[in-house]
Amino acid sequence: MVLQDISTGKPSFECGNSGKPSGFENDSLQNVGKEKISSLKNSVTEIEYLIGQREALSKSLSDEVEKIKMDIENFLLKNVAVDSEDFKERSGLRQKQIEVSELQLNERVTCWKDVALLKKELRECKKELSEKEERMNMFGKILNDSEMKGGSY
Fold first, then answer.
1. Residue 46 falls within a domain, yes or no?
2. Cα–Cα–Cα angle for 127, 132, 135, nearest 5°?
3. Within a domain: residue 15?
4. Domain limits at 34?
5. Full-model pTM
6. Per mean pLDDT, which of 6-10, 77-81, 92-96 is the most reliable?
7. Residue 95 domain-assigned (yes or no)
8. SS3 letters for 21-81?
9. Is residue 12 situated within a structural domain?
10. Confidence of residue 1 (pLDDT cuts 50, 70, 90)
């Protein structure tokens, strides 16, 4: 049986009567596995980076919201209401303060959900990476054992 490489047209895999591959390199299979492992490691790194960025963004937004709330509170403390128009303005500012607090709470919940989803994806990638590394190690041991025994498969 002969399998040809499409790009070169040359045989890339031949199997004769002995059943032993000729023209077939163990390194090619290991390279394919290493590429997949490398890709998974990159995914893990990227997801960890995204988790950190999402948490940093949430903290930044929370800090900004706290600053806005503090500014409103300071304004309310400095300016005393004299007439009904001032009371309406102060009431409006207090309502805005409540709305900003609600937005802050919603951001915290959304951040938690986003991070939870990213961590779930991270666990799945790490699990797949671990499985692939175990398979590559097992495959490497099998190939090394078969080479030591004289190369028969």
1. yes
2. 125
3. no
4. 26-148
5. 0.67
6. 92-96
7. yes
8. EECCCHHHHHHHHHHHHHHHHHHHHHHHHHHHHHHHHHHHHHHHHHHHHHHHHHHHHHCCC
9. no
10. very low
